[in-house]
Amino acid sequence: MKTRVLGKSLPRFDAPGKVTGTLVYAADFSLPGMLVGKVFRSTEAHARLAHLDTTRANGLPGVRGIITAADVPDVRYGGAVKDETVLARDRVRYVGQPIAAVAATTLEAAEAALAAIVATYEPLTPVFDVETATAPDAPLLHPDWRTYTAMPILHREGNVCNRARIVAGDVERGFAEADRIFEHRFRTAMVHQGYTEPRAAVAQWDSAGTVTVWSNTQLPFEIQNTLAEILAIAPSKIRVVVPGIGGGFGGKLRVGVEHVAALLAKRAGRPVKVLTTAEEELTAAYPRQATIVELKTGVTRDGRITAKHGRIWFDTGAFAGSGPGVASVATLVLAGPYRIPNLDLEGHAVYTNKTNCGSFRAPSGPQSNFAVESQMDIIADALGLDPLDFRLKNIVREGDEGPTGQVLNAVGLEECLVKAADAIGWNDRRPGRWRGKGLACGRWTTTGGSSGVYVKINTDGTIALNTGAAEIGTAALTGAAQVLAEELSVDLEDINVVSADTFSTPFDFGAQGSRTAFAVGNACRAAAVDLTRQLYALAAPHLGVEPEACALRDKHVVADGKSLSLAELARLSQATGGGLIAHGTFIAPPTPYDTKRVESHAYPAFHSPSFHAHAAEVSVDPETGEITVENYVVAQDVGFAMNPTYIEGQIEGGVAQGLGQALSEEIVYDGGRVRNPNLTDYKMPTTLDVPRVQTILVQHPSLVGPYGAKGVGEPPNIEPPATVANAIAAATGVRITSLPITAEKVALALRDVTARSAES
Amino acid sequence: MSRIALALTINGQRHDVLTEAHRTLLDVLRADLGLTGTKENCLEGECGVCTVLLDGMAVDSCLLLAAQCQGREIVTIEGVSSRGGDDVLARAFIDCGAVQCGYCIPGMIISATAFLDEHPSPSEAEVREALAGNLCRCTGYQKIVDAVLAAGRTSGTETRGDAR
Predict the structure, then answer these.
(1) Partner residue opposite B135 with nearest CB, options A108, A196, A649
(2) What does the pLDDT look like over A378-402, one tens digit per residue?
(3) Number of domains in chain B
(4) What class, spelled out in words, does domain A26-124+196-247+252-283 have in CATH?
(5) Which single residue of A188, A386, A543, A604 could bond A367 by disulfide (Cβ 3.0 to 4.6 Å)?
(6) Do A687 and B131 touch (CB under 8 A)?
(7) Tens digits of per-residue pLDDT, A47-56?
(8) Does this chain's domain A299-307+366-445+606-755 share its CATH topology with A448-587?
(9) Contact at 8 Å (CB) between A31 and A515?
């Protein structure tokens, strides 16, 4: 395809502001007279809040307002389950839960006020893991769970806030057909998104009772609606504006600091800014859930999978958060990208006395994939099959069904697997002592939801693109702008983007789920179709032709050897009408699936699925267990590469983040308290930990995405844990079944092997 | 709380600041002087988003008291990006696709500026060592390292065998 701008590695439109430090992020945003907001948090994991005394704090210098549960609307809010309150009312459920909040003139005054607030607790029995929480006699975190408003499809019971299920075929029959049955258990740890900009919000009320919130949220319209519930005012009284965002990765989807800022600003009558600390991030944010996964898989002697029974338990923390939905998505991932006729897959989201977990880039993906793809290698080894051959024998291909019966198309999985394996040098899987290679594969969704854009042609011939989506760093809006520029025959520099303001930009489902470039790009196409029609109708009489004879060429409407520029037409339109403007919209069409196969399922099909394979080579120090990732390859089916450089960037970054989860990252809880709430002890990869990633872009065009594009952002975060686990097993002969795979775990496992061989 | 008068030299300009003795350079840059190109995150010297040049050395401004910086030369991203020739680095970050969310980028560019001043034509391993104190969660560092290598090649006096 010959293109003008699309498919080219053009620089993102927001880069100059970012490299010069002039782009204003939410954390940088300030207003005259702005106060500092800070949150007073629970020190107990599970307790009755017997008494709360803010009297002394209120009298301290610089304090301009304190709020407790008594001062805010008595509202429960939340996603799938409305089980959360802004401030704890009579019970606290995790260490770090907000109880009160203070607005003061300085940070020091706010911190002094927090120190002067006195909370008295009466301890309740805490529950720190899903095994205890799901035991028959477990203490209930939410004794009133039945009274909560929740998505009607959820299956809730006590501490379980959803159990989603997929049943296909007959697993018992499938196991009967199997020659071998393999059962394994895996565990993964709680990990944080690790965005470099803390969550931040500034709120200001005006005399008309409208509150404006500048926030680094990924979902301004969701925040607008949630704030409407929490503040008990109409959404039209709430304006959410998103300045620059320093990374999100799913951690900035839900209301986090916006409500506190808005409530404090109202109380104090002044603008208030709330900015989280690293400690607050690691103790009271929305991290990825720790999980336990149990898999039972039946295979024939020649390596055909006949049945899979899989169960995953998500430790969702004190509130449901994203848990019910994530538990649903997980069941699709547990099937693996394989043709398995008999499936029984369950995802459970379970309350415990820990911080409320949320969504993190490909929610449920890495945990489920780690279990599935680790077990694939275990089975291949046991059957004496090459792990690549075993996968190729079972993977889904064009026209196959997904686990819930959706028909798969544009399936580039085989190409991904073969190319990744070739690039890593798969024919030499154990190239040396303590050196080995592993691979893993998967599929992921391109999340649906609607997007709208307003597009206007300015009188200087430039284009204004007005979108409700926020640019969180992925360059998705650069991709969408490239689509628009292509369709209107202009350059990327001609597009000016205004984004993410609930009062002025059209609705967008938000920067989540690998959907932004896909959905906003399609909305841009729709707007361009409308604008092109307007341009032709306007130009035709002046060119002396019928509109059908017109064409767009290099910023001009041309016909019959004559032309008018977009700038001239925009001026003409303003003189004779209302200017050239279009509202383009897009909503992903529903993906048909077999409703009989799912129970209590919030996400029953993967829309425009992407396919991917990762391969790694690692070396292991047998004395210390230290792991070095020597080489890493990703082959990802992106459908169509709108901007190859930034797609590579997504893949390189997703791998780095995935390697963190695989090898070093864990929020360590001990008796309800986080032991490592700082960036010294919460170990994210640095320049010295991440290898170069070789990216191979595979392009099997999707039927729905702009020019065939598929969602790109989340997938590269899914396979790294399984990939390195398999490479470590190849290098050492030791299989680690829990994340993170630390040097300590590997060294201890190797010592066990040595001890056992000495005994025998 | 009593305040002290400080004379700070930032990006070649003198700034007279009246502030409490305990406040960090980062606080003063962002809150008092509006120089928000220097970013704020962990406040414990782990993430590097607040990196500035102090007498040519890359330092975490969250760990420095503003009062320690009197009589010394402070350069922030706002100063680097207006320093003419040093735009080579900013340009390289854009051209290599090294910018995603961008929040770590000012600190990265400052660290790289100090590093390239000392090592005009570095190897990849040296670049990685130099940037190890700057966390980035978006890019996986690859294109950032490429940008610093490219800037080194562009502005350096000698070219060295490519370490990639």
Answers:
(1) A196
(2) 999 999 999 999 999 999 999 999 9
(3) 2
(4) alpha beta
(5) A188
(6) yes
(7) 999 999 999 9
(8) yes
(9) no
